[in-house]
Structures are given as structure tokens and as C-alpha cells.
Amino acid sequence: MGTYQHVRFAYRTAPEVGGAPLRRPVAVVGAGPVGLAAAIDLALHGVPSVVLDDNDSVSVGSRAICWSKRTLEIFDRLGVADRMLAKGVTWRIGRVFHRDRELYCFDLLPEGGHKMPAFINLQQYYVEQYLVERALEFPQLIDLRWKHRVAALRPAAGGAALEVDTPDGRYAVQADWVLAADGARSTLRGLLGLPFEGHTFEEKFLIADVQIGADFPSDRRFWFEPVFGQGQSVLIHRQPDNIFRIDFQLGPDADADLEMQPERVMRRVRGVVGPDVPCELDWCSVYSFRCARLDRFVHGRVVFVGDSAHVVSPFGARGGNGGIQDVDNVCWKLAQVLAGRAPERLLESYDAERVHGADENIRNSRRTTAFMTPKTGTEKLFRDGVLALAHDYPFARLLVNSGRLSRPCSLEGLPGFEGDGADLDGPMRPGMPCLDAPVTGGDGAPDWLLRHLGGHFTVLSFAGDIGSLQRLESGLAGAAPDGVQMLAVTPQLLPGGTLQQLVDAEGLVRSRYGGADGVTYLIRPDQHVTARWARPEAAAVGRAWRRSLGEQP
Amino acid sequence: MNASAPSGLRRDDGFGGRGDDFYELLMRAHEGLDEARSAALNARCLLLLANQVGDIEVIRQALDAARASLAPPAQ
What ipTM was estimated for this complex? Predict the structure, then answer.
């Protein structure tokens, strides 16, 4: 059953069994999407890591399927997005029903001029496979170890020591930093005795992957109180290989064993897809969920990323996408600290920024759950009222909450991001993740802005003519320390300039960044705006750069 | 259907994109109340908000719209 062929990755005996410990700058625990992405991001920064996973294959079942634009932009920086786009289902249309009536539909079609779509659907096992294959392209930097299970963790001076169990015995790993990417039931969290507090929801859900052998709509469809079958709500979503994800809200009292009986699952499925459509069950699971997070994500030299740090309900696709944003945030910081270019304190900004992101995800997830599972008569009255008005009153559609889809998290107002001067009012404020736009490089080939911004600090300036370009060149001379690249966005290639130019032939970079002549941005390696100036001075750029590396002003 | 006719009942988003904040506030206001007290809260809240709106014609349209959206009584 199923079309995906699960490959077993080869277990290898660790040479350290019965010998000296393995030493690595970073040990990544967990080879799910978050751990693998972290190892690749670190490798792109030249940081070697060992990845320890207690299993030897990719995920069973589709699990995280819905990958957001921001995640795809991060995956593009890591070198896997093109494969994901080629295989994934790009979807735009969502339709919301109440009983037998369609309340409204929405279209995620983003404005033109972005490389990535709003969302694609792609089973987690494909994402993990692509990440594994990408990781294998760094044999000198990424040491992937399957069936290696962390059994003990001990903080040590300037790092942490791990005891790792394998089929051939135990060995030790000494790492300067440990990335705990070991999921919602994190072993490392338990080994450190960290409380994982939050709210558990009683509602049970049945998730079924069904292969449908006929033309069937790609739209995301959500029903409140569907007329077919019992249950509070149903969501259906298309994935590649003609697999459809169907989520059934079963109520708090459902019996998981009973509900997972294949003939019972298929009865529910038939209610959604109709009696005659050829279909086959690929995978199913009954789950409930909770919203919880660690109080802090950084514990000495152990840094929690992804589900080990925070969990949410699946509505809104905020689990996997949140974890990838953790990776994007932490890896460049680790690389800077390990290279001695930033103080260890820089990791505090990971804690502040991603706790902020996790709280945003938890808040949205909790609100969706409250709407989908009214707990009192009054909550039900308001929910039913919103649904009753949604067809005729657009304001009520905005209150219908079947999931608030993951949006890029803004870090505006957090420490390290400068407020704007009075003479700047464009939409890209400090703390925001950079918007993409089409550009052409020196060779005239079409390209994308974001492909030039990731992985290192960038000073991005706007110049409309050679005069303003030369003013920038002299004004910013010496502004870019080692490892900071300087780019000028120009309307056409301006001969005579020394700065590398990105040609903004369509003018979209200029309009999205409020790019009047001279406007200059400092952009972090994770493509977030750190600071910007209408009239930049080299000294101010240097100060902002040092502040975003965690140095005290 | 007009988004909002002059001095008519507003149909489009009046929350400035903060509808989810409103809904959470509303649910919190009812937390811990039994149904009778929840109903009393709703009545008083409606009086306060109707006074805030002030325009009798708009309030009439809101009451009519709410009434029209009710399902007919079960036979």
C-alpha cells in the first residue's frame, strides 16, 4: 500500500565505540526536517556537525505537509526548494463550508514577482529525503549517523558531552554546542529535566492519507458540521502522488483503537469523496494535541529547535514551518559564535526571537482550536452566529477560524533591531523578513533578490544613477567589515560603479523597499532587516552590524 | 451587495484586521459564567454597543439581519 518507497539508511558502526570520544563543534540530535536543515545550514557556514538519529528512515505517514512561502525561501537558501517545488502541489484556493452550504472561498494567489508560492503541499517523507540527499553533498562537514540514540547528556565546560547507544555499543560525543531537534517527545528535554508546560486539548482527530485514483479537486476544503458522516469538522487537502490528507474532528470521547479500524476509516472517507471514486487508505492516525513550549530555548550549550522547544495544533501549519524558522534564526548565530566573531550572548537573541515566534504560533493555534471546539453553550452560540452570518457578511468570514495559515514572523520591536529614522516610511521595517523581487545580475540572467541576501550580512543600497551610486560608494567606504557583502540596486547596469549591482528592471525592489536614492539596508544572514537609513554613514552601519552580533553598544 | 451603504449596516471588516483579537476578548468575557449570566452579559453588552452606534436605522438593520439569519423553528 502507498506509493512512497521507504529507504533504510545504512547504519554504520561508530569508530569511537570502545575508544576516544568523537569531537565536533555541533551535535545535532534528531534527523527530522529541523535537524537535517540545521546540519545543512551549518555546513553552508562551514561548521562541521554530527547528526544523531535513533531511527534509520524518513517519517512514516505524511505528517507535516503544508510548507509556507517563508519556509520555501529558507529551503531555497539550503538548496532543496527547487526539488520541493517540482514535486509539491502548489495550491491557492481554499473553500469553507457549513453543513451543505459553501460560506466563502479564498485565493492565496500572491502578488507577482516572488520566486516562491504562498504554500505547497508535500509529504514530510519527501522533504526529509531531499534534505538527507542534500546533506550527503557535504561529506566533509555532515556526519549522518542512523540508529545512534542519545542516552545521556552532561553539561561540560564550554560544551556538552553525550553518551550515544548503538547496536554495537556505547560511545561518547563531545560538542561545543548541541542542537536538540529531537521532536515533541524530546529525549534531551527529559535528560535535562525541563518542564514542557502548556495546554492539552481533549478533542481527538483522525488523520487519513487516501490515494484517490480519479480526478479530484485540488482545493483545500473545510467543512464545519459536515452533512456527510458524523463529526464536528472535516478538512481535505491534496498532496503529490494523488494522496489526499483528510482530517476528521472526532470529539473528545472518541475511541482511538476503534476509529483506526480501516473499514471504519474508509466509511468516513467515503462520506467525503463519494461512494464510487476509487480510493485506498495509505496511512491513518488518531491524535490529540497540545500547545506548549519550553520557558527558554537555550540551556547553556544545549539549544532547542523545532518541536522539542514548542508544539502547536496542526491547524495553520505552524509546527514544521515554525521549526524551519528556528533553524534559519539559530544557525548563522552559532556559526558566528564558533568563529569567534560574536559573543556567546548572541544566542540570547535566538531565545528572545523564537520564543516570540512560538508564542505567536501558539496564540493562533489556541484561537483556532477555541473556534473549532466550542466548550460552552455560549461559545457555541457565537460560533454558530459567525457561521450563520459568514455567507452574506464579509466581516463574519474573517472571524471564521479553520486555521490561520503560517505567516513569516516579524521581529519588529525586539532588541537588536533599530527603530526607523523620521525620514523613512517604506514597508520594510527593521525586524521584518525581506520580501523577494525579481532582479538581474551582471550577466543579465533573470534572478531573485533573496538568492543574493542569505547566509551572510548584506548592506543593500539603492542608486538611480551613477552620481548617487558614487556618493554611496564614497559614503559607505569601509562600512562593510570582513564577511559583509555590499550590493547596490540599480534600474539598469550603471557603468563605472565599483559596488556589485543587482538590476531592478521591473522596479519591484525599489517599490517594495521604499528604495529612494541612497536608502540603505543592513540585512542579517537570515534575511531579516536589521536597520535602515535614508542617508547612511559608514559608522552607523558598523554600529548596527556589531549590535546585531550581540555586542553591547 | 455594497460593502457599506451610506448610513447603512456595515458588512466588511470593521476590526481593522484584528477580528481574532476581538473574538478572543469576547470568549474571555464569558469565561466562568453559567448560561444565564452569559445571556445577561450579552444583553448588557448589546445595550452598550447599540448606544455606541447610536444610529437607530443602523441598529434596526442589524436586528433585522440577525433575525433573518435565524433558522426557522423546528416543526
Answer: 0.91
